[in-house]
Fold this protein.
Amino acid sequence: MIAAAALLAATSMLAKILGNGLYGPALHPLQVSAGRFAFAFAALVVIAPMMKLRFDKETPYRWHFVRSTLGWLGVTCTFAAAARMPLAEATAISFLSPICTMIFAIPFLGEKVGPVRWSAAAISLVGALILIRPGTDAFQFAAILALGAALLIGLEMAVVKRLSGGEPAIRILFINNAFGATVSITAATFVWVPPSGDQWMLLIVLGLIMVTAQSCFIQAMKAADASFAVPFFYTTLIFAAIYDFGLFGVIPEMLSWIGAAVIIAGALFLAYRERQLAKRAAASRTPT
């Protein structure tokens, strides 16, 4: 999970490099997300036969398309935010996605949310307001993009929950990146700027890193309970801050760290509550 966190932070770093035009013309977020999906899909085309990927008539392609569209929009907003604000702040706001998943699970999955879970959501929302700081000079539109990314990815995860009941992980990954590549490349044609040779290499690396991060995340979730593995994913914030400082010399403000800490506290509180509920459910199924 820590490897997934380090790699995911690296994708935001690469998006920031490409979006700021350090090695050629500044690339539009739509073009960056097209590279991310296209080269991730190319890697999966090679890997899929080894994983014995199979399709059948029961495959819920409609839900796969919905998930992939949400993921493409979420990734595009993430890359746009990363190019325009400190990586640590953009990453911290993205940690609202588990809270968003919880909220969207009510209408989509019929889940019930009690006062403890709503309290966790409220805590994280306070942290987001500290980071976004609406109505002050510190407010920036990029923070709204990051918040939009969290909402979209949270909704995507609710759809993934619906899919994961009967869909193998490799099929979810393959269809997601196939749809994502098709949609993102189509959208990128409207803002296309010829990348430099260095930028082509960075786009290839971006796609390969992203699919590796996804694989690490899935393996971590298989190897341990989500309540144990997910908290380690919040090290993404540390890696993002390190990358941003090393490459751009950006040091997050103290208030930004406070906001990030509050968001993570709310997310960890939610993870703890999920673990308690899982234990109770397991105990109720145990024969007396």
